[in-house]
Amino acid sequence: MKLIVGLGNPGKKYIKTKHNIGFMSLDAYAEVNKIKYKRSIKFTAEIAKTQNMILLKPKTFMNNSGLTVRKVCKYYNILPEDVMVISDDTNLPFCKIRLRQSGSAGGHNGIKSVIDHLNTQNFNRLRVGIGKETNKILSDYVLSEFSKSESKEIQNLLIKLNDIIDDYIIQDKYENLMNTYNNKN
């Protein structure tokens, strides 16, 4: 069983913000594949389970996402190496992606929370570039909405992310996914 986690913040206020690209990715994937989420009080999340994967949107706010990830991993006996976390990344140019098998949080509080709660850095990441503006406070930037032109680019990117999720589900080795998609960027 593979766990695919989209990071974001709950609530209408945050739906279209840059920090919610993980939620957007999983919502787009669920829509295309006609997968329905259920609210889970037990996990403090929206969760969708199929035969071979779980889509997870923690509803604990970004900085506590790891708590939900840990609960789901424990309940379903999922190892960290079978987890892929989709998050925004201000260190990547807009709409660039980077797949990694491990590493530091890189200043991302959601990733830091997952590292802390899984007690390891060894889980898969799909980082989505949102760029950054040097004249804005970082928290204001990540919590701002995409512009109209950016939203159009994001819609095209979501198609690519759907392909990555499909391939992740069937791939045995994350390295193969990294070689395929990191080189296409």
Question: What does this 3D model show about the protein?
Answer:
- The protein is an alpha/beta fold and 185 residues long.
- It has a single domain (2-184), classed as Peptidyl-tRNA hydrolase (Rossmann fold), CATH 3.40.50.1470.
- Helix content is 39%, strand content 19%.
- The protein is built from 6 helices and 7 strands.
- Strands 2-3-4-1-5-7-6 form a 7-stranded mixed beta sheet, with helices on both faces.
- β2 (38-40) and β3 form a beta hairpin.
- The longest helix is centred in the C-terminal third of the chain and has 23 residues, at 148-170.
- The two termini are 28 Å apart.
List the helices and strands and how they pair.
Elements: E1 2-6, H1 21-32, E2 38-40, E3 45-49, E4 53-58, H2 65-76, E5 83-89, E6 97-100, H3 109-118, E7 124-129, H4 138-142, H5 148-170, H6 174-184
Parallel strand pairs: 1-4, 1-5, 5-7
Antiparallel strand pairs: 2-3, 3-4, 6-7
Helix pairs in contact: 1-5, 2-3
